[in-house]
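Sat 14:20. Reprocessing the chain from the morning session after the first attempt stalled halfway. Input below, unchanged.
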Amino acid sequence: MSAATDAREAGVRVEEVLDRLADTGDRRACAAAEELVRVLMDFYGAGLARIVERVGAGPLEPVLGDELVASLLSLHGLHPEDVAMRIGRALVAAGDAVEAVGFDAATGVLRVRPRAAAGGCGCGGGSDPDAVARALEDTLACFAPEVTEVLVEPAPAPDAPLLQIGVRPHSPVRVP
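Finished this time. C-alpha cells:
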C-alpha cells in the first residue's frame, strides 16, 4: 500500500468515525471529537514545523522524496520546496513516463504529456490518458496537493529528418 493510499485511507477513517459519532445525534460529543482532531493536527503540525525550522531544508533532502513525509509536510504547509519541484518529484516517483507541460496554480490543473521515447514513434506507447492521469493523481496527492486535476496531452511528434525524393544527378533521363 502506498503512502498516498495510507494518507487517504487515514482521512477516510477519520471522516467515518466522525460521521458515526454525528449519527448518534450527540452534538456535544461530535463537536468535541472535531475539536480533538483539530487540536491533534495543530499539535503534530507544530512539531513538524519545529523539526523543519531546526533542521533546515538541506538535511531534509534525504526524506523529501518519501511520499509519507512529503504528504505530511505538504498537509501542514511546511514542505520547503516550491510546487514545481514537488511536481517534478511526483513525476519521477510515478515512473517518469510523462513530463510536465504546465501547471495553472489558479485552477490546480497540471498538463502533462508522454515523454518521447528515444528512437520511438512518439505515439506514447498506446497508454490510456485517463489511466495515466489516475495513476499520477495518487502520487501528486502526496507531493503536490495543489494539483487538483491532471490533463494528459498527446505525445509530441518525433523529430524525423525530411526525406527528399528526386532525380539522381548525372543520371540519364529515360523516356519510354
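Strands lie at 98-104, 109-114, 149-152.
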